[in-house]
Amino acid sequence: MPKAVNVQVSTVDAELEFAIEPTTTGKQLFDQVTRTIGLRETWFFGLQFTDSSGLPGWLELKKKVQSQDVKKEAPLRFRFRVKFYPEDVGEELIQDITKHLFYLQVRESVLSDACYCPPETAVLLASYACQVKFGDYRQSVHKKGFLENERFLPSRVISQHSLTKQEWEDRVVAWYSEHRTQARDEATLEYLKIAQDLEMYGINYFDITNKKGTKLILGVDSLGVNIYGKDDRLTPKIGFPWSDIRHVSFSNKKFLIKPVAKDSPDFSFYVAKMRLNKRILDLCMGNHELYIRRRKPDSVEVQQMKAQAREEHEMKHADRIALKKEKQAREDAEKHHRVLEERIREYEDEIERARRELELSREEAHVLEERMREAERDREELEEAQRRAEEARLEAEEAVNLEKAEREHKEREAAEAQEELERKMEEAREREEETRKLLEELEEARREVEKREEALDKAKHANPSAVKKQEQSHLQRKKVVVIENGSDHSDDSDTERDGESHDLPTGIEPPRDDRVGQLDKDKKKSGELKSLKADLAASKDETKMTKNDLIHRKNMSEGRDKYKTLKQIRLGNTKHRVEVFESL
Questions:
Q1: Cα dihedral angle (393, 398, 399, 401), rounded to 10 degrees?
Q2: What is the per-residue pLDDT for 403?
Q3: What angle do CA 152, 155, 161 make, to 5 degrees?
Q4: Confidence at residue 457, expressed as pLDDT on a 0 to 100 scale
Q5: Which residues contact 293 (CB under 8 A, 6 or more apart)?
Q6: What is the mean pLDDT of the chain?
Q7: Weakly modelled stretches of the chain, pLDDT under 70
Q8: Among candidates 96, 89, 106, which has minimal Cα distance to 37?
Q9: At what angle do helices 96-111 and 184-195 cross, to 10 degrees?
Q10: 5-10: strand order across its sheet
Q11: What is the three-state SS of 494-505?
């Protein structure tokens, strides 16, 4: 029995291992991988490997795995990656797993700078990446520094600005907090919609030369082939959409393209190695096939997938609405509970104030009683003074017969006693008046004490039970239930042929030329992005600007974006564009 071959396949978020037979074809291995991860939109993906020369290549599906130029190592290593990109992710990607795999690969391209992204857009994309990973922003959970160990911006962007990591985090969080209530799959799709407007998104680049020997770059994508200058991968010079091409072929290092237009000559370019032409041909055929497929009615399989996706989306939408209502109900219940707790605290504070005032009233009553006792003592002293005055009067009467000097002396003492008596009586009247007022105040204080004691008793016995009943009644009214939640046209020969030729279907409609970017559709977000750009410009180190930064700045200053440029490079007839290419 032939010995099994160990294979390791790396997806963007997992490592898979298989044991295959020596006769296993590329398609059999590819199907095994897609079944394992539950992927049905297989036409976008392929198995990439490193060949014996150290160059990346794609596994041919019709050939045996071991007959292909895969670097010989144990186990054989492959990368499951996006091979063909859609024209519009919002229209074409159906399954959540497909969107997730696209998101992870595109995000890695942005972070590694394989796909150029301006700083302000990188911050916006980072905010959607946070929504995908962490869900809704909550200040109590996502505290300062929560992105400390996260790789959320390209290192190029960070190094070009004199901002701390915390200052970058603050700018990301400013956007992130606005995505609250957005589901993770919605944030994933929004990330892709913005990323697909980047100039280098979804393009495979190859170094080429034209007949004159001018070094150029060929870009192959979902819409066609574009020609770039040697040092500028952002701004294509000439474009040939798939609707303009009827035939592609190569012979050794020469690649030939035949336009649909009969009056247009064929044109060709050259690459350094023949195997590069095989990969260019493979990408041209696959992208052209998908280009036509998009412009035809959906197959039964795709219709079923879309119907299932719609049902799942509707169910998720309904679940999100129910969850939102339940969360709102819980928040209302918690808010009501907080209000009741606040009322209890207010009652307790009021009771405490009443208790303190009661104590104060008791102290005041004690003072009044002490004053009454003093008034009583004064009254007794007054009566004693009256008695002495009466005795002095009697003695004076008895001394009438005394000698004149003694009588006068006695009269003076009597007069003095009388004056003292009158003074004491006046003081007694004043004290009686004061005592009367004190008695009235004491009576009023006692009544107030009785009222406060009654209020204190009611608060102690009535409020806790009433609060509890109100809370239970409210929770019963709002009962909360939380729900948490590729085809290949080469034969199976082990020898490489030095040329291949393929005719492409014609009579298909050209790409749209009225497309606008995702951010241009949202004026509010576009305005905020401009403000962020101005904010970042203040901390930017111009000496660290890369070539792509300068090219992007120049394009923006001239009012050009990806779609305006694509429209411009397709202007004129095919013959004229071929002539321009040959003259470069």
A1: 140
A2: 66
A3: 100
A4: 67
A5: none
A6: 86
A7: 1, 399-403, 405, 407, 435, 442, 445-446, 449, 452-453, 455-498
A8: 96
A9: 50
A10: 15-20, 5-10, 76-82, 45-50, 56-58
A11: CCCCCEEEEECC
Which two structure tokens, joined as six digits, stand for 23?
């006769």
Q: What is the pLDDT of residues 400-430, one digit of tens each?
A: 666 676 767 777 877 887 888 788 788 778 7
Whose tokens are 């030729």? That residue is: 501
Contacts for 259 with CB less than 8 Å, ≥ 6 apart: 240, 244, 245, 246, 266, 267, 574, 575, 578
25, 223, 289, 302 from 94: Cα distances, Å:
28, 20, 18, 9
Tokens 């010995």 sit on residue: 3
Closest by CA position to 94, among listed 46, 148, 41: 41
Q: What pLDDT score was predicted for residue 400?
A: 61
**Interstrand relation of 45-50 and 76-82 (parallel, antiparallel or unpaired):** antiparallel
Instruction: Report DSSP state, residue 64.
Output: B
Q: Which residue has the tokens 């241009």?
A: 520
Containing 278, the helix (H) or strand (E) segment is helix 274-294
**How remote is the C-alpha of 237 from its chain's centroid?**
38
d(CA 419, CA 505): 140
Q: Map residue 264 onto helix, strand or coil.
A: coil
The residue type found at 581 is F
Please give the structure tokens belonging to residue 158.
């960070």
Structure token pair of residue 275: 């195997």
| Predicted confidence (pLDDT) per residue in 501-519, tens digit | 777 777 778 887 778 888 8
Identify the CA nearest to 109 among candidates 176, 203, 33, 45: 203
Torsion, Cα of 123, 128, 131, 134 (10° steps): -50
Judged by DSSP in three states, 224 sits in: strand
- Measured between alpha carbons, how far is 105 from 46 in angstroms, rounded to an integer? 13
Q: 56: which residues sit within 8 A by CB, 6+ positions away?
A: 48, 49, 50
Query: Quick one: how far is CA 140 from the chain centroid?
Result: 14
* 8: helix, strand or coil: strand
State how far the alpha carbon of 493 is from the alpha carbons of 62, 100, 188, 538, 566, in Å. Answer: 10, 36, 42, 60, 39
Beta-carbon count within 10 A of 111 CB: 21
Q: Is 489 helix (H, G, I), strand (E, B) or coil?
A: coil
β pairing state of 254-259 and 267-270: antiparallel
3-class SS of residue 369: helix
What are the residues whose beta carbons fall under 8 Å from the beta carbon of 325, sequence distance 6 or more? none
Per DSSP, 51 falls in state B
Angle at 336 between CA 335 and CA 337, to 5 degrees: 90
Q: Are 250 and 277 in contact (CB under 8 A)?
A: yes
CA dihedral 149, 152, 156, 160 (to 10 degrees): -80
Structure tokens belonging to residue 255 = 């690649």
Q: What residues have CB less than 8 Å from 275, skipping those under 6 apart?
A: 51, 53, 55, 57, 69, 496
